[in-house]
């Protein structure tokens, strides 16, 4: 299937980039489409980590302010899993470990890739590399809480699995990354606790 890129214009560059692409693509019937003008949020890759303690059967989560829900009239305080932009770094596992330490103060003793995926491929290039990080929630942690120069104010919390499941069913989690991660944990929890996964 052919794609013909006619023009690429950078409309905005800040923490995110907004691009306008003008292109044509081969249709399923073999003909080329007419020119399409598409705006794409250029975000790059990000790493996300679901922290799970299989011995304590508990999750390491974070709470922080997010403007998206706030602008929709909801509470801006979200319960999430660790996540951060990879920037120019191509070692996604290293980013996952760094972000986990920065945001929570914990260091996973085992990090496993769950899968990589796009959140919204029609409007964004952002690709998420989702990991499960096994950790010991009883170990003292370093400071965590995010980086002051990035204006982060993050509260790490340990939550029993049963509580997290109640929150999941009650739609406390409103981030797609957290929803996918917890769905994965529901399917894989028993194997993680047995040490099979």
Question: What labels describe this entry?
Answer:
single chain; 197 residues; alpha+beta; Nucleoside Triphosphate Pyrophosphohydrolase; 7-stranded mixed beta sheet; 23% helix
Largest sheet entry: 7 strands, mixed
Distance between the termini: 38 Å
- Number of DSSP E strands: 10
The chain-level mean pLDDT equals 92
Shape: globular
Spell the H/E element sequence: EEEEEHEEHEEEHH
Radius of gyration, in Å, reads 19 Å
CATH homologous superfamily assignment of the largest domain = Nucleoside Triphosphate Pyrophosphohydrolase
Which topology of the largest domain does CATH recognise?
Nucleoside Triphosphate Pyrophosphohydrolase
CATH class assignment of the largest domain: Alpha Beta
Question: Beta-strand percentage?
Answer: 35-45%
- Structure classification: alpha+beta
Number of helices in the DSSP assignment: 4
Spans of 5+ residues with little confidence (pLDDT < 50)?
A: none
CATH architecture assignment of the largest domain: Alpha-Beta Complex
Cofactor: Mg(2+)
Function: Acts on ADP-mannose and ADP-glucose as well as ADP-ribose. Prevents glycogen biosynthesis. The reaction catalyzed by this enzyme is a limiting step of the gluconeogenic process.
GO molecular function: ADP-ribose diphosphatase activity
Protein name: ADP-ribose pyrophosphatase
Sum this structure up briefly:
The chain is of the alpha+beta class and 197 residues long.
Give an account of the 3D structure:
This protein is an alpha+beta fold and 197 residues long. The chain folds into 2 domains: 3-42, no CATH class; 45-194, Nucleoside Triphosphate Pyrophosphohydrolase, CATH 3.90.79.10. The chain has helices at 67-71, 92-104, 161-169, 176-194; strands spanning 3-13, 17-25, 36-42, 45-53, 58-65, 77-80, 82-85, 110-118, 127-134, 155-160. It is globular, with a radius of gyration of 19 Å. It is an enzyme of class 3 (hydrolase). It catalyses: ADP-D-ribose + H2O = D-ribose 5-phosphate + AMP + 2 H(+). Acts on ADP-mannose and ADP-glucose as well as ADP-ribose. Prevents glycogen biosynthesis. The reaction catalyzed by this enzyme is a limiting step of the gluconeogenic process.
């Amino acid at each position: 299937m052919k794609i013909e890129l006619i023009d690429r214009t950078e409309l905005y560059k800040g923490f995110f980039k907004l691009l306008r692409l003008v292109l044509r693509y081969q249709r399923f019937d073999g003909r080329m489409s007419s020119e399409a003008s598409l705006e794409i949020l250029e975000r790059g890759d990000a790493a996300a980590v679901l922290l799970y303690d299989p011995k304590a059967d508990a999750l390491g989560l974070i709470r922080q302010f997010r403007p998206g829900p706030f602008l929709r009239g909801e509470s801006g305080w979200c319960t999430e899993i660790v996540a951060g932009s990879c920037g120019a770094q191509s070692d996604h596992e290293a980013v996952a470990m760094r972000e986990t330490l920065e945001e929570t103060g914990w260091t996973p003793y085992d990090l496993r890739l769950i899968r990589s995926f796009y959140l919204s491929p029609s409007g964004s290039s952002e690709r998420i590399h989702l990991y499960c990080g096994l950790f010991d929630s009883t170990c003292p942690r370093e400071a965590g809480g995010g980086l002051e120069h990035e204006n982060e104010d993050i509260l790490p919390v340990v939550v029993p699995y049963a509580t997290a499941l109640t929150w999941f069913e009650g739609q406390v989690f409103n981030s797609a990354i957290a929803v996918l991660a917890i769905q994965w944990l529901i399917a894989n929890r028993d194997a993680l606790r047995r040490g099979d996964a």
